[in-house]
Amino acid sequence: MEYIRVNKENLESEHICCAISNNSDIQVSSKKQWLSQRFDEGLVFLKSVERGKCFIEYIPAENAWVPIKADGYMYIDCLWVSGSFKGHGYANDLLKECIIDSKAKKRKGLCVLSSARKKPFLSDPKFLEHKGFKVCDEAANGIQLWYLPFSSDETRPQFKDCARTPHIEEKGYVLYYSNQCPFNGKYVPILEKAAKENGIAFKAIRFNSKKEAQNAPSPITTYALFKDGEYITNEQMNDKKFLKLCAE
Asked: Which one, 126, 139, 193, 225, has the greatest CB density within 10 A?
């Protein structure tokens, strides 16, 4: 497999793997706009030359849109290999390139979000464990921070206090999200419309800056849904799933 690094120069012409290829689609344009503003902060987006879900996205932890203390580490936003690309060792390839690059940049190691059991849109804990990652912190909602230090004496990354016990004061459904995930460009407006049409108290709060995301009330900032102050899920949903959830 050949890989290509997406950057400012080729961003508009490259397929970004996890959304449809039409650049005019809001899912693509919102993600590409978010990416274009992160490259100067050290973000790397490495993908297969073939179209499909086979890529890794990572950034220095100081610039990651997550509420963690991990200075000196590299944070993996997303490592996604699926469909026909699974089972060929491509995830190993991508992670290996991330490690080589991170060591060359004098980072302390890698860190990434996961959980004890596989959750949607989070790295597979079995794969992480197989590659030598270990859990270094866990929030009250079961979201874990895993790390792979490059030396045994490195400090352990941890969640910031604001995210350790996910909770907000506001009642009703409150969704925190960012344009880091392209699917939000489509599905957040769908939930807003469904809630309005069905008289459901709902508010969507988008993180528009690194500072906002790094002080979030949840370890996950791409998509975190709360109900009456309590964290529910990070799984993006359409109107049918959302209305079913509200009826439970």
From this structure: 225
* CA 95 to chain centroid: 16
Q: Which of 148, 243, 146, 244 is nearest to 197 (CA)?
A: 243
Asked whether residue 126 falls in the same domain as residue 234, the answer is: no
| Full pLDDT tens readout for the chain, 248 residues | 899 999 999 999 988 877 666 777 889 999 999 999 999 999 999 999 988 889 999 999 999 999 999 999 999 999 999 888 888 999 999 999 999 999 999 999 999 999 999 888 899 999 999 999 999 999 999 999 999 999 999 999 999 999 999 999 999 999 999 999 999 999 999 999 999 999 999 999 999 999 999 999 999 999 999 999 999 999 999 999 999 999 98
CATH number for the domain that contains residue 198:
3.40.30.10
Count of domains in the chain?
A: 2
Q: Which of 112, 144, 160 is the last residue of a domain?
A: 160
Amino acid occupying residue 175: L
